[in-house]
Design goal:
This protein is mainly beta. The chain has two helices and eight strands, in the order βαβββββαββ. Helix content is about 10%, strand content about 30%.
Length: about 160
């Protein structure tokens, strides 16, 4: 049994955008057409296929504004998709790169210094598990090692 769970963006966040809501900066999401790999949907945690419409928008995966509440661009299928559910296994979207930044955050939603590491995809579960064994780590983010874009969250089970 796994001790960690990979979590996609909440469906409530996706539905708000699908229903005409605005992003973290108060703007309408932009619509683009995917040209293939490189457009990972943060709700289903799969790549958006070439030719499919997608939203690109500013996302802040934190409950409140504060200095460590990183906000950045992410993608979402324009047509509603099913939220990623296989929480115990590495999401398909993480197979699109050789490594990612894995970083721990405290209960105050701030980076726990010294936890961020560029991590090969095969080592993500073990590194996240080791971080979540620490009392000062509440959850972990997986982010692009090239652009720092938010990919998903990892929690202890």
């Amino acid at each position: 049994m796994s001790t960690i769970a990979f979590s996609a963006m909440p469906t409530s966040d996706a539905e708000m955008l699908w229903n005409g809501g605005t992003d973290a900066y108060g703007h309408q999401p932009e619509t683009m057409i995917s040209d293939g790999p490189g457009h990972p949907c943060r709700h289903c945690l799969r790549n958006i296929d070439a030719g499919e419409e997608l939203f690109v928008f500013a996302y802040r995966p934190f409950p409140e504004l504060q200095p460590y509440a990183e906000t950045g661009p992410i993608f979402l299928h324009k047509t509603p998709c099913k939220r990623y559910e296989a929480e115990e296994v590495l999401p398909p979207v993480l197979a699109t790169s050789r490594d990612f930044i894995v970083r721990g955050y405290g209960k105050n939603n701030r980076i726990v210094y010294g936890t961020g590491a560029v991590t090969p995809i095969g080592d993500i579960p073990a590194y996240a598990t080791s971080l979540l064994e620490r009392a000062d780590i509440a959850y972990v983010h997986v982010r692009s090692a090239r652009n720092n874009c938010y990919q998903c969250r990892i929690d202890r089970v």
